[in-house]
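Entry for the shared binder. Reason: the reviewer on the internal report wants the predicted structure included alongside the sequence.
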Amino acid sequence: MYNRIQTSVNFIEKLIANFKPKIGIILGTGLGELSTKIELVKSIPYTEIPDFATSTVDGHSGKLIFGYFEGIPIVAMAGRFHFYEGYSMEEVTFPIRVLKFLNIERLIISNAAGGLQPHLYPGDLVFVKDHINLQPQNPLRGPNDKRLGVRFPDMLHTYDRALNKKALEIAKKHKIRAFEGVYVATQGPNLETPAEYNFFHIIGGDIVGMSTVPEVIVARHMGLPVFVVSVVSNRCYPINELTETTVEEVISVVNSAEKKLSIILRELIPMIG
């Protein structure tokens, strides 16, 4: 894997010349329009990058965007890969390793997720403080390359609670509904049953989604600090309020929340950049 990472990094560095991104951002389902807020330096389709997979999900444009956001040099993944698309966990998380070797200092991840608490409504923001991983494979499974990270990374301080606090303060200032919460990761691609939603609620979940945790684990493996924000796309609790949910509805809700997320990131990124 190490050699493949270097091949991808060398390819990208030739295209971006002396541009040095400090922060990496993953734009999840329906959040691609945030890329239009970036002062563009270079855009590279995933299909052109060696060993990158191709995103097959609606709302994921599939390209690396290099540029400036509020004056800070960043690289944004407009779209991610998922285990449910048929990719291995290594393929899903390969871009995170490439971003690390492009020398980013922090990773920001966004996603759409279902709300597992009665106080969470579509359009709310949740800053992740911990996760429960229910996906069937781990991206660190297999031989460990010490050049990438230690064999048994500790997950105690995975999420930056101090940065969550700053984000909550920004949200409060702008009267944006926002909370901290625990993210439950499932395989997908089907949405969960009522019994499963109830189970996730009982075990301490606040939101549920089909992504993010593999990227977080790999970032932790490589010593890359992470900040994760979820946009609540639909209510999954209480159970008696469940309604059928479509991907189109999820994308519509998340699109409508992009302005709020943009406000948070416009103030937060300069603080950490």
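Summary line for the report: Residues 2-272 form a domain with the Rossmann fold fold (CATH 3.40.50.1580).
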